[in-house]
Amino acid sequence: MNGTRIRKVAATAIGTALLLTGMTGALATQASASPSAPYIGDGYPNNSHGVWCVQHLVNDVAQSKGKGRPLAEDHLWGPQTKKWVEWYQGVSGHGLGQDGIVGKGTGGWLLLDGDSYYGGHNYCYNYVPSYF
User: Fold this and answer.
1) Is 76 helix (H, G, I), strand (E, B) or coil?
2) What is the pLDDT, as a whole number, of residue 32?
């Protein structure tokens, strides 16, 4: 290969890499900058991912408090999930009202108190409402 050909191949490879990096960066930013998640509970649309996250995070808190994993992580909002959200709201120590609705206060604390693999700013952050 002559010098001109090597430079063209290198420029093409670098341009492709920058384009792919730019695209990957845009996708990562878009995913982490999700709009505010809707409330979860009776009378709300209850996205199945959000409900699963609530069930999973409540189960993690319950297990840490010696209650086992009381909820089926079935993506369905129902009376058992509501009951355990109310339980969490009462035992969390964060002064949450026990209304069984996962709003920004309850959701934010669940994200912090529950499983750090899914909570915090990870997967469930996109589906559970919070102030952060």
Assistant:
1) coil
2) 33
